[in-house]
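Problem: given the chain below (257 residues), write out its structure.
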Amino acid sequence: MTNLNYQSGAIDASGCVSTAWALIQRNFGMYLGAGLVALLMISCIPCANIFLLGPVMGGFAYIVLRDLRNEPVEFGMLFKGFEKFVPLMVIGLIEAIPAVIFQIIQFTMDIGRIGMNSGRSGDFYQSSGADPIAAGFAAGYIIFFIGYLIFQIIWQSVFIFAIPLVLETNIGIGEAIKLSFSAVFANIGGMIVLLILGILVGLLGMLAFCVGIFVAIPVMWAANVVAYRQVFPLLDQNFPTGPPPPTAYGSSFGQGM
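Solution.
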């Protein structure tokens, strides 16, 4: 019977990142290719991308979870998440709600700004001062965008364990989300540090001539999966492939495979 108990205070954020980097180093080409294809599928396919988010991230998590058990991994496993397409798709859709709302609001604001500019185009040469309405509009947009980013980070953090939970177990969508929510807040300190480290990894990737972001993204995704295994170590008992090395999880947490 699947044990869905989670560990509190189990996330070793630096261990998650270092373990993720070690995994990617030993299968660099595979992770780079899987990360790039996953990124293209969830960001560059209009409309369909939000339906692919859950299954694609589930497939990436499948690769990392196998790799943590020292089992063979290959690029084609990225599509393993499609075997549980519907529940993973629903979780992905729920996770994407803030982004969809933001896109709608941004589109509406863009239309409004175009309307204001066209309505005042005849006064362009009659005024050389700053437009207080346009300045207020820009300031409001900046505040709205910052608020959205903060909310989006919190929202996605709540769902961080839901996809691998559905992938590894037969629990329902609602139960997976509820369990992910509880596990995240039982490990809130480690989650905050992990988020900060993830941002730093992303910034380092951007600084590496922007090309490094294609390495940084798989590292961040893999680190989240390592954190999941630290929080839910007992689930790995469903895969009795032999004991892992002492450093399999990059910390003293989550050793009960």
